[in-house]
Amino acid sequence: MHIPDGFLDAKTWVSATVISTGALGYSIAKTREQLSDRQVPRLGVMAAFIFAAQMVNFPIAGGTSGHLLGAALATALLGPWSAVIVLATVLMIQCFVFQDGGLTALGANILNMGVVGVLVSAGLYGPLSRLVKGKTGVVLASFAASWASVMAAAFMTGAELALSGIPFAVVLPAMLGVHALIGIGEGVITAAVVLAVLNAGFSPNWLRKGDVCSE
Amino acid sequence: MQGIEDKPSAGIWIRGVDARVKMIAVVIFIINATTLQDKTLLLTTAFLLLGISLIAGISPVHLVKRLAVILPFGGVMVSVIPFVTPGEPVWTLQLGAFKLAVTKEGWEAAILPCLRMLTAFLGMAFLTSTTSLREMTHALNHLKFPKILILLIDFTVRYIAVVMDELNRMQTARKARGFKPGRGLWDRHTVKTIGSTLAMLFLRSYERAERVYLAMLSRGYTGRYKCCGHCHRIKKLDLSFGAAMITVSWAIKLVDMGGIQWSPLLK
Hints:
Structural class of chain A: mainly alpha
Radius of gyration of chain B: 24 Å
Number of strands of chain A: 2
Distance between the termini of chain A: 45 Å
Number of helices of chain A: 7
CATH class of chain A: Mainly Alpha
Strand order of the largest sheet of chain B: 1-2
CATH topology of chain A: Arp2/3 complex 21 kDa subunit ARPC3
Oligomer: heterodimer
Strand content of chain B: under 5%
Shape of chain A: globular
Radius of gyration of chain A: 17 Å
Number of strands of chain B: 2
CATH architecture of chain A: Orthogonal Bundle
Strand content of chain A: under 5%
Largest interface: A-B, 74 and 86 residues
Shape of chain B: flat
Number of helices of chain B: 9
Distance between the termini of chain B: 57 Å
Largest sheet of chain A: 2 strands, antiparallel
Number of domains of chain B: 2
């Protein structure tokens, strides 16, 4: 879903870049309330984990395979604000090192997969996992959050292409249809990972542990 | 993990050009190129970039390998846009009850973004093949890019190799125990195994993050980005390279803008 250069026109990519820069700045400010600058190494290792998680292929059906987008996984494990920063970092590295996703489209890609993906996941994961107690709640919440984050990212991609004058309004339903299937894969794997992590006794609150020598 | 800390594959003179200059020049080049309207000018730009890349000593094989990453998106767009744009049909495809028509307008609409994508790709390939990531983050630091993001990119790149190695070891061990992925998502065992692999990878990364953080603190880490100490002034070579790139880019852009205004007068 990484948009390359050339498909978005100037007004679209400039607005997308402005929005995602704002969102990223806000997330950094929010994370600073919990983590200090000195904990950047910790977020770096977590970003490396998300990068690696995106590399794992899983079979979907009939010999096809997919890989994770990671927005919902990062949200469930790291919390929304750290997740936005971590995903933006991963997308920047993919752009600058692997040329996956264009330079002018970087803001749009961060907006689709980072910001919108995380906000949708966070909006669903928190309330759902509180609404339904226990492991069922965690599975249900992570599945719903992942599926919705993939759909939201696909919708945003389609909408941005349409805004750029590429006749995409006809293709949008097809794109959403395909991603509805991909989203199921993302949902199942994310739910399995989140469940296994919580079963191992991990608590997302650990990330909010303060600085060791902050006193 | 290949590719991430590779030595740039380019010749020596181009690596001497200051990374800041290269970055600014390439960014301006790409922004101008992706707003060009004229196909001939776009092609000219693409060939110019290809020429510079080849002169800089980037191997064509390397470029083709890089191209493979962006082809899926471009390929889908090229194969879809001509069919869905309304207009004069030039070629039809009969698929049972469905009739798909490639339109002239659709073809035009597909070619332009693809040429732009290719041009921008060549620009980025030029930048990333002639500049190492460390040089790029260093340049970003001097260009006043937010420090926290530069630090994060630095750490992430360093640990991607470590985490990927860990993942590969786990996958090898899994294979050695006789695991074969199933055919689809309904295979509970496959989903559970992949889920627990990633969960384990997360927990190990989390613990590694703790260890790394404590180790760095004990060595006096303060969260500040340290400049590597070989910052150099802009040389004549940098200035002439940057000026040439930017001038050529704007020249093409101006011809393109002017071309649109002049074309009605010529008719």
